[in-house]
Amino acid sequence: MIQKATRPRGRPRSFDETGALEKATQVFWSKGYDGVTIDDLVAGMGVGRPSLYAIFGDKRAIFLRALKVYAERKGASAAKALLSPQTLRDSIAGFLRYAVESATEKESARGCLVVCVAPLVNDPEVQRFLQSAVAGGTALVERRFRDGISAGEIPSNFPVAVRAIQVTDLARGLTMRARIGTPRKTLLKDAEEAADLVLLPRPQAVGKQKL
What we know:
Elements: H1 17-31, H2 38-45, H3 49-55, H4 59-83, H5 88-103, H6 113-117, H7 124-150, H8 160-179, H9 184-198
Helix pairs in contact: 1-2, 1-4, 4-5, 4-7, 5-8, 5-9, 7-8, 8-9
């Protein structure tokens, strides 16, 4: 008598969790966190409801996991754009261009999950993650500025901390403008001009005029 083979419990070994989370990212991106239902995630991720809960958890858990996967991937690409070029000016311009190119990818919602969706989620863990991500990005830009000082590209009194914050603020601003439909060509031009602006030397204090 032939016995039926017992199917192993649990998720299939070939199941692509990262791919499913990337699909969840598109769902959250298109509808916003509050507008997404479990049915939306089931349809968008291609996972049955029981498997979705068993593997990923509820909507909040799925969003947190998708956000972290998304941020890690985008952060690695942004770091490459910042640290690969030879000159400091090209590094800053590359970082800002990447923000534009990422926010205006074809066949994808304009903007960025970290910049345009996650800040609207009223959840302490999401907010802590965003604060950490912003701090990490700023620290990376600071590092590049300090390398520029060591290489003699900018003076030793260059306001590294302030300008690093400005660069990351500019990147988020370009992303938000992409979200509202500003053309990619315009944003890329603005990114190049912004790179020149942040590298301007610190303004000298105006001394008292002699009578």
